[in-house]
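go over both lines:
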Amino acid sequence: MPVVIPRRRIAAIVTGLAVALVPPSLALTSAAGAPAAGALPVPHAAAAPALVAAPLTVSQAVASQTGQSATVRGYVVGQPTATSTVVRSSFPNDYALAIADSAAETSTSRMLYVQIPSAFRSAWGLKSNPALMGRQIDVTGALSAYFSHPGMTSTTAFAFSGTSTTTTSPTSTTRSPSPTGTTSPYDSTYYASAIGKTGTALHTELHRIISSGVTTLTYDQVWTALKDTDQDPANSNNVIEIYSGRSIAKSDNGGGVDQWNREHVWAKSHGDFGTVNGPGTDVHHLRPEDVTVNSTRGNLDFDQGGSPVAQCTGCLSDGDSFEPRNAVKGDVARMILYMAVRWDGGDGFADLEPNNLVGNGTAPYIGRLSVLKQWNLQDPPDAFEKRRNQVIFDTWQHNRNPFVDHPEWVTAIYGS
């Protein structure tokens, strides 16, 4: 007699076989809980184990810039240094990675820019680990813009794809300079008492250091100082204007159209210190600039976005903020933060502080701090900025901008 199996029993057997035959790679779900691309629907089973979310591809991450947390898998293809620039060698620092779905990708539009917090830089930064180029990795963090480009910020984990070795963010909230941070020939002398400090302790000690033995200039002396500090390296008769980048004759200074004058990067009305000897004549934040562009910037805070600025390619402005060209964004950030450390209310002037606002008016604040911190990472100190710092130290004020020597101290004091 043939064995008769009830219809319900047959259905149960077929369902069980369907579940068993689905490959794990097809059963993965996306970070949002929906089936991953190409996945087959899996029937519900009471005893089925929970499935691990599949990493997103880079193309999926680029199209999903909503701030949600996700893991993305891609190949390391270089280090982003600006919105549309990724370098593939001679990496300037350990602050960022670019990943793509192909190790041979060269189009930045198909790359994801990954911010590397200080805790991960020694292991995952390209300056310290150039052999990472071409390796496939998994990164976890928030899908949000970095360098004004589709990216990942607040990164919490890195791992090589296909391995179980993952580095995750430390649970300690203590911030310290990256162990692979910039070294300075002044670390054992000028900065000796600051090395190893973080947060308020570092702020306090740097204030003491950069306020000691300083020569205070007059506003007239600033003219002469700027002709030295901002000299065009390609033409010793000229200076470079900070925002416009134009090279102009040193002698063509004054208040006329197309001349250059003295730009207060920390706008002098923010704290109402004017041009009196002190913050008003501190050459660390005074730069040559075209008279018209200087007027357009006025006392605006720093932020991203706006309309193009005449005579200043790459600059934008709106009713409450100004955005400089990419090549000097970091310079601006480090000058602003220098002023906040140097002038803290103990010299008879206002206590200058960065904040995360715009439209600060005459209050002793300048924003936007979150953007300035991003610019510090985006645009590391270059040869021009480093020379300027040295000339001010050697010839004019005899103090240094510590954030030019140690840009990682921005994070150590103000957070990532």
Remarks:
- The chain is about 25% helix and 20% strand.
- The chain has a mean pLDDT of 85.
- The first strand starts at residue 69 and ends at 82.
